[in-house]
C-alpha cells in the first residue's frame, strides 16, 4: 500500500447520516484523480446520479470548483474542492419516521428486520430518503451517532422478509464474510405458477445477463453464466399453483425468479419473468382466463425525461403500497365492476435465516411468517 492510500485511510470520513437531508456534497480532488474531467469525477462519487441528471446539474450551475462555477469538461487538479449543490428532495422526508419494519432480532452488534413489500432497501435513483436504510438511520443513528446501520443482504423492492444489518462497520464485514462463505442459510417462500411435480429438487443452472434494454435482467446462460444452485421443496399444491420453499446455495441476482422460470414454474406476479402482473379472484374461475399482463408495468413512454419516469414510478409504487395495506386490513381492492385483487406484487418472501453469531458464537435461527397479502392469496387458492 503506497503512502497516498495510507493517508487516505487515516482521513476516512465517517459514514453519512442518511436520516439527514443533504443540501450539498463537498469532495476534494486527490492525486489519483488529477486530470479527470469534473463530470466524470462527480459520476464516480455519486453513482446514483444518471448522466442526464448530472448534465442538468451543470446546466443549472450547481457545480462549483473552488467556489467558482465549473463546466463539465474542466480538467481537475489535486487539491481542488468540488461542491455539488443538491436540489430539494422530491420525497416527503418526514416519511422516514413512518416507514414500517419489524425488528425480529437485535443485540449491541447487529439486528435482523423484516421488510414489507414495496419498499426500496437503500437509496437509489428517485428514492434517496424513503428507503429502509434511511429509516434505520432515523431510528438508530439519530439517538446514537456511534451506531451506523448497514445492510448485509438485500432483497428486491417487492420482496418481503428478513434482512441482516450490522450496527458497526466491523460487524457488517464479519456478517458479510459469513454470507459470502455460504455460512448463512437463507430460505424463501414463493407462490409459483403450475403444480410442481417433485417434492424436492436441486436446480443447478448457471445464471448470466439476459441482454436487451433492461440491464438488470438475468437468464440461464450455460456458456458464460455463473454457477447457481437453488434447492426447492413443495410446501403446498393447489389446482393450478404451488407454494414452494427455496434455499439459496449461491447468491445471484434474481436467482429464485430465474430458476423457477427455467423449470416452467415462474413466480406469481413476477413482472419480468412471470406470466401475470396481478392475481385476481377472477383468475381462479374455470376455465382459467388469460393472465393479466401489462405492456409496461410503469407505463413508460418514448421521450420521457428522468423526472417523468421517476414521478411515474413513485406514483405507481405508492398506489401499490396502499393496495397492499388495504389487502392486509382485509379490505376489497376492486378491479373493474366484478373482480377484485388478490395479489399485486411478486410472490416472494424471505422466510428464514440461520447463522452463527460472529461475536457470541450462538446459532441464530429466525423466521418471518408469510405477510397477509401472500397468505390471503394462498387462502383463496385453498378454497378452490
Structure description:
With 384 residues, the protein is of the alpha+beta class. The chain has 3 domains: 22-85, RNA-binding S4 domain (Structural Genomics Hypothetical 15.5 Kd Protein In mrcA-pckA Intergenic Region, Chain A); 93-180, Pseudouridine synthase, CATH 3.30.2350; 185-298 and 310-358 and 369-382, Pseudouridine synthase. The protein is built from 8 helices and 19 strands.
Q: Write the CATH architecture name of the largest domain.
A: 2-Layer Sandwich
Unreliable segments of 5+ consecutive residues = 3-11
Question: Helical percent range?
Answer: 10-25%
Cα-atom radius of gyration = 23 Å
Total domains = 3
User: What would CATH call the class of the largest domain?
Assistant: Alpha Beta
Distinct helical segment count: 8
The CATH homologous superfamily name of the largest domain equals Pseudouridine synthase
Biggest beta-sheet profile: 10 strands, mixed
Total strands? 19
Structural class by SSE content: alpha+beta
Could you tell me the strand content as a percent range? 15-25%
Average pLDDT works out at: 90
Shape assignment = globular
Order of helices and strands: HEHHEEEEEHEEHEEEEEEHEHEEEEH
Please report the distance between the alpha carbons of the first and last residues: 65 Å
Entry keywords:
Pseudouridine synthase, alpha+beta, 25% strand, Structural Genomics Hypothetical 15.5 Kd Protein In mrcA-pckA Intergenic Region, Chain A, 19 strands, 384 residues, 3 domains, 4-stranded antiparallel β-sheet
Amino acid at each position: 500500500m503506497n503512502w497516498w492510500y495510507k493517508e487516505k485511510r487515516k482521513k476516512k470520513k465517517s459514514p453519512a447520516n442518511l436520516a439527514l437531508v443533504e443540501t450539498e456534497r463537498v469532495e476534494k480532488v486527490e492525486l489519483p484523480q488529477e486530470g479527470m474531467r469534473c463530470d466524470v469525477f462527480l459520476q464516480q462519487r455519486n453513482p446514483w446520479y444518471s448522466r442526464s441528471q448530472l448534465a442538468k446539474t451543470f446546466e443549472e450551475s450547481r457545480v462549483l470548483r473552488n467556489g467558482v462555477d465549473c463546466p463539465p469538461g474542466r480538467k481537475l487538479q489535486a487539491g481542488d474542492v468540488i461542491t455539488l449543490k443538491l436540489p430539494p428532495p422530491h420525497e416527503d422526508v418526514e416519511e422516514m419516521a413512518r416507514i414500517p419494519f419489524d425488528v425480529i432480532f437485535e443485540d449491541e452488534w447487529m439486528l435482523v428486520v423484516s421488510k414489507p413489500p414495496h419498499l426500496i432497501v437503500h437509496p437509489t435513483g428517485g428514492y434517496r430518503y424513503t428507503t429502509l436504510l434511511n429509516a434505520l438511520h432515523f431510528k438508530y443513528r439519530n439517538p446514537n451517532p456511534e451506531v451506523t446501520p448497514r445492510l448485509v443482504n438485500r432483497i428486491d423492492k417487492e420482496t418481503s422478509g428478513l434482512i441482516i444489518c450490522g450496527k458497526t462497520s466491523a460487524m457488517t464485514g464479519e456478517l458479510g464474510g459469513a454470507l459470502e462463505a455460504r455460512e448463512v442459510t437463507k430460505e424463501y417462500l414463493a407462490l409459483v405458477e403450475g403444480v410442481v411435480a417433485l417434492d424436492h429438487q436441486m436446480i443447478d443452472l448457471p445464471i448470466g445477463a439476459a441482454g436487451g434494454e433492461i440491464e438488470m435482467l438475468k437468464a440461464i446462460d450455460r456458456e458464460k453464466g455463473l454457477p447457481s444452485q437453488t434447492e426447492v421443496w413443495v410446501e403446498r399444491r393447489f389446482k393450478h399453483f404451488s407454494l414452494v420453499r427455496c434455499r439459496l446455495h449461491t447468491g445471484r441476482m434474481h436467482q429464485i425468479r430465474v430458476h423457477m422460470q427455467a423449470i416452467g414454474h415462474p413466480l406469481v406476479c413476477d413482472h419480468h419473468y412471470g406470466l401475470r402482473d396481478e392475481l385476481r379472484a377472477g383468475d381462479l374461475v374455470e376455465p382459467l382466463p388469460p393472465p393479466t399482463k401489462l405492456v409496461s408495468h410503469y407505463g413508460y413512454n418514448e421521450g420521457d425525461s428522468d423526472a417523468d419516469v421517476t414521478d411515474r414510478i413513485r406514483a405507481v409504487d405508492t398506489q401499490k403500497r396502499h393496495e397492499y395495506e388495504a389487502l392486509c386490513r382485509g379490505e376489497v381492492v376492486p378491479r373493474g365492476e366484478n373482480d377484485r385483487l388478490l395479489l399485486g406484487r411478486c410472490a416472494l418472501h424471505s422466510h428464514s435465516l440461520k447463522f452463527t453469531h460472529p461475536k457470541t458464537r450462538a446459532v441464530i435461527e429466525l423466521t418471518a411468517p408469510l405477510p397477509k397479502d401472500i397468505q390471503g392469496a394462498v387462502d383463496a387458492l385453498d378454497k378452490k
